[in-house]
## 1
Amino acid sequence: MNALLSQFVNLLASALLMLSFAMISQRRILSLIHLFTLQGATLVAATILVGYATNQPHLYFSAGLTFLLKVVAIPLLLHRAIDRLNVRWDIETLINIPTMMIVGIGLVIFAFNLALPIAKLSATVARGTLGIALACVLLSFMMMITRAKAIPQVIGFLSMENALFFAATAATYGMPMVVELGIALDVLVGILILGVFMFQIREQFDSLDIRHLERLKEE
Amino acid sequence: MEALASVLGLPLAGGLLLAFVGHRDAARDVNAAFSFATLVAALVLMTHVIESGPFMVWNKAFFIDPLNVFLVTLTAFVGFTTALFSRPYMRIERDHGKMTPRRMRLYHSAYQLFNFTMLLALMTNNMGILWVAMEAATLATVLLVSVYRTAASLEAAWKYFILCGVGIAQALFGTVLLYMAAERVLGSEGGALLWTNLDAVKGQLEPNILTLSFVFMILGYGTKAGFVPVHNWLPDAHAEGPTPISAVLSGLLLNVALYAILRCKVLTDGALHTHLAGNLMMGFGLLSVVAAAFFISRQRDVKRMFAYSSIEHVGLMAFAFGVGGPVANFAGLLHMTVHSLIKSAIFFAVGHAAQNAGTQIMSEIRGLLRISPTVGWGLMLGTLAILGMPPFGVFASEFLILTTAMRVQPWATPLLLLALGVAFASVFRRVQPMVFGESSMQPLAHPPALLPTFVHLGLGLMLGLYIPPYLAEWYRQAAKMIGG
Amino acid sequence: MNALAFASQALEILVALLLGPLLTGWVNQWRARLQNRTAPSLFLPFRTLHKLFIKEAVVAEHASPLFRAAPYIVFGCMVLACGIVPTLSTDLPLAPAADAIALVGLFALARVFISLAAMDIGTSFGTLGARREMLIGFLAEPALLMVLFSASLISKSTSLTTIVETLAHRELAIYPSLAFASVAFTMVSLAENARVPVDNPTTHLELTMIHEAMILEYSGRHLALIEWAASLKLFAYSCIGLALFFPWGVAEAQAPLALILALPVLVLKLAIGGIALAVFETVSAKMRIFRVPEFLAAAFLLAVIGMLVHILLGT
């Protein structure tokens, strides 16, 4: 029974990795938000499952927190933001998907290699998933580097947060409660500040294209 | 413990209060008053520690030990003097039309909250809370960087937010790994992230996990400290934000980020019994020193130039801690202290100089001595001090670092000397005409507050000539704790 | 090797020949329903085949013998492929003849012949279709191989029957690597069977067509064979997908009862799969031909990640 549960956690981990790849190859902003919501939901499911498999009730609480924050609040804020900024149908041009995918594979291999010796040491149900979590972090990182628009960058940032949260759940059954609350607060404040920012950028440049933000460079 | 509670509670309360009344004229004084009260509480805390030694409170949630106690005092002190400096500075900014009442409110509230996060990061015993506080420090200052709403300031703030957010996310991953290692030894009951508990069992922590954890930590907190490959946010944020913020970013945030790395280094050294952590720090440090020195020579903006100088000095500190051992650690801690004092003093002077000239471009600031002798002398003396001229404290600490490097890592000495030489030449070449020479600038409407500048310079001078015995004792204890 | 095995092999081929066109009809029916059109009969593909078989086959003047032979070769390949894929039973006399890699080879052989035949006449549409078909095949085949390797890694054999036996008859286990493989496989099958995001099976007069462009010159029984082969290909791909990702219900050796049960299970699974395909085709839009390499590269990389995940998780 437990073996099956842990395999199911592995499956959800793979789903997260797949969603990360879907996100780096998604050009539409709206679809990106949907993918992000889905990623949050997967994360919630994984957290609940780990909580159930290991009988750690506090994970239910953190799953609830994740649900409120990552599946309800932040997507809602993002939807409102894209409506008010009028970028709902924006499409990011100029991303070379096959190259990104190949680099992504490289990152996955790198992450797996890094995590392999450590995965063996972990006694948790989902020990193999640390490598996947690390791979997701790196993929989100890549997404942030390659995107030129503000909202995809923010989504990359948030999905990195998701991956980290998953790492915490998979490797250690979640951080201590007080830390988790602190992280949730930081994320919430962060997203509010980002919202303010996007309006400021828009006001200044009439566009959410980060390529406008390239004046400050070393000559 | 009341003093500790008030050190944390006062800035938090101040931040909340100023969020409502921060736009009033009196807010500048309220801001300074809160910072002063925090300083008093920190001094009470310090005397308590001098009398009865380190302690922990509230279920080990917070602690004071030799490593953080002087940083707490320093943070409260620089926080207070910067609040003093910002009184006339912000008044002038408002008169120039750069600060609206809403922006004033944001500024005052965020200033106190920033101080709160710094103090929280320093005093918490929990590595997770340390992370939370570091992230909160970014959040508190990011809107201040973009407060002028110019294109450049928005860009700087966006970079600051994204780069530090990404960086700090790496540190979170490191923290998760650390917790994973700790859980195997301490069990999952609460205290596995408490630094004191970790320190007690550091020999049993799994070396593989700790190695990976430290790599992520140094990348993450190193981003905030401004280590070179991940420093890009720092010059922009310093140059585009209001000057008091530049002063506290350079004077405080960099210290606290370095402090976080040091905490991780102690654990990693204990688990690994190798010099890996130290080597990494030396590598990042040396790279930062050398790269920053060459970047300095190409700057046109005065605040950018001094921001790069901060990167250089943080690199020097990281190098010192990386070398390790009692002398180098002592020198690193001393350098931390004097750099905070003098760099913030320089930013105070630079802030008024830029207000005088109406620009931050160095070639357009000329003859400060004519127009405002205090600003001119403040800038000149500060520059000499930061460049390591005797008898200022920077000279003492740099001398110690260099002599230790000569003994332990001789190959690094020429690089360091070269970098320091380049930095000296480029900074001095730029500052000299700014201070001396003819001027066509207008005097300021309100007298500049340069008392903080000279107090800081005085302290920096004192530390170069004489270190009070209890301070030296702390340094020695802290240096022993950091180990090598 | 016994009579039962030969019986199940024969039954399988027969079922494939019958269910293939039915599956095509089923998908078309559902597509029509989802698009608010009057649904055609389920047996329309059979009627079309019948009609084509009794019509005279017209062949272009300068067509070479290759042009006439191609439909038979293609049809033969597809029948053989359907014989290899374990749809009803894993006890198949033909199965040792070819493993998963040979299966991919069979599909490639059919592709080569149909492309050659398309170029044989020398019309512009034929060559255009052939070129595009080769482009897709060139990208899809490695991805398909990777998908099959992911499954082979689990069962440690490239024989399809062994894979299905391992997946269906061992204790229940979830393989995350198969999740990646299944997504990749779906993408590859859509491309290989000329379904919507890559090609549109219902248009004849668009510059974007691929499969239809190649068979424009065929008529009569040749066309019938090619159409039948196309439905067999869809059937074979569906069955590979079912065998790899939903293998439950396939009969083992020496189990005549299970064989009887296996047929309704297969029909049910195909019916559900057909509806899913129709829904997918209705909601998605056809992509530009230049996007197809991107699409297939993604499939390939997903399959590779599946293998990596398998290695990491070491299930």
## 2
Amino acid sequence: MTTPKPRVALFVTCLVDFFRPTVGFSAVKLLEDAGCDVYVPAGQTCCGQPAYNSGDRAGARALAERVITLFEGFDHVVIPSGSCAGMIKTHYSDLFSGEPGWRLRAEALADKTHELTSFLVDVLGVSPLPVTWEGTATYHDSCSGLRELGIKEQPRRLLSAVDGLTVKEMADPEACCGFGGAFCVKYDEISNAIVERKVADVRGTGAELLLSGDLGCLLNISGKLRREGSSVEVRHVAEVLAGMATGPAIGESRK
Amino acid sequence: MSGGLTSQSFPKNARAALANPPLLKAIAHIEETLVGGRRRATEALPEFKALRDAGRDIKAHALDHLDLYLEAFERKVVEAGGFVHWAADAADANRIILDICRKAGAQRVTKGKSMITEEVGLNAFLQENGIAPVETDLGEYIIQLRGETPSHIIAPAVHVNKEQVAADFRRAHADLDPKRNLEEPTSLLAEARGVLRERFLSADVGITGANFLVAETGSTVIVTNEGNGDLTQILPKTHIVLASIEKVVPTLEDVATIMRLLARSATGQEMSVYTTFSTGPRRTGDPDGPEAFHVVLLDNGRSAMLGSEFEDMLRCIRCGACINHCPVYRSIGGHAYGSVYPGPMGSVLTPSLQGLEKSAHLANASTLCGRCESVCPMRIPLPKMLRHWREKEFERHLTPKKARFGLAAWRFLAARPRLYGLATRLGAWGLARLAGRDGSLRQAPLAGSWTRWRDLPAPEGGTFRTEWAKRGRK
């Protein structure tokens, strides 16, 4: 008798959907390789974080309600982003204070929602399939993943199994990259000063590849590296782990 | 406050700061000295996390019973022969202090470092009334000479370099030999000591703040690194303490617990160099101390924070760790905030003290990266409270129209998956076409403030949802 496969819903995130479908397919591959049945509920859009962080509670609540309804029927919800996972895990229940029914549903969803690398390591405890990436990488800890969800060792543990890959740490991998959602366009000059420090740290490692688990940070860091004329490749950690880091990197030209 | 709030011109202030290389160079020192110091000190103390819980609990308990502990504190001060004055706001506090100074016939006033006197604008007020206060903390003395406000709550002159200090000293100490050497920090320090020594000896009133008020003994406590606080409060005939009401803790034991957190979080020291307890005026047989001891307890908006979503902020012990670790502060320094208190703690506190309308930008000028909360010794949920202010702004329609429109449009689309799918498909396709083989865009429609500083990585082409559907997957 075989245990039924866990039914895992992938929350792609709006940024991955729009900018980098490869990250979504990498996540699907990692989950399927780990023995999950993967579903992508149609009708998913945004977790509501932009509204929440802009003070629009009602707007955030409305989107949270949609997400809960769409995703609560699965065994697990997995997200290739610490930021969106953090929104659902640590903030959703707060949006439904005074609404016990919804609050319970929000808490139940929070319990089964996981950031991708954390799900692979902490929940499934899988050893990733053998993949190869020759070279040196450095890893940026995205703020929400690190400080809301405690994600630090999980991606590094998975990367340590990648053949040929060495991880060289930045002086301050935990420093914010300056993205901050709307912050990066509202206070663009300050955001720029912050990302300048981040890319200086990245370049100081001598690594050829920058990895992280959040596309917001990756777009920001890649954009700055490109503008500075750097050749450091920027990718979501899932791409490397799934062996799908073959096409152009984020912001890289198509050859 | 002195100087007035300029938070409304935060973007302009920030732009000026970013174009000021000496300022940026000065702030960069925080990384090694304060951030590095805290890291080393906390790593060396295995129980630091447990201490943070204990500290948080002490302050939370004191806030839950604030009336009780403040009244107990008052009784003890009076028993020890001192006076307690209750000030509802800044104007009240200034008037009370001026009255005490006048009754003491004071001409000269020395001051220990105190952010609360900055909050009420005491220096300017005393000057307008013919009394010349002299700052005795080196950093405060420097910025007083420069006519500035502190740019950091524990390192008020962190934005100034030693060449600037030398120039200020030459200008202010015109009676000294113009050819003297002021190149070394030690020579600057020696000169300040010499000048300040005279001020200490001639002062009629000494004014300090307080890091703690102790309910069980009626003591006020200050921590300093220069000893200036001691000379400020011991030498003059009158000592006035100005402290805000949330500084009260129940016992001396509580002070001891929080003290273990304070210096480590602030500078990475295990203890500040001087910790001074003041309990009433000089007693018979005491070798020194003031003849009169006054404590002015300031509310200034704090009691209104009790029971609100901002109550946790009243646990703050003013260590400055959140400021030191803030990527925004580290980019622009403290003056750009245009508020008395800069950085994350300032952005939470200022709207409470001065009103949200006058504090526009402060709550928004944060990436919500959470590092402030992760280093706060009192475990104050600063990002959560910044978000609360954003919610209040949104409720009161103070959020800029453009941002409200953008949010409404996003919300409309995100609630309509089909339309959303169409719009994102078109957008991703269009941007990918625009980028061609480049992979990145140097300019893009509606993305001007992004592409001003960085390229915009182009979408791969089709959205994930379209590609997924093409593969016949659900």
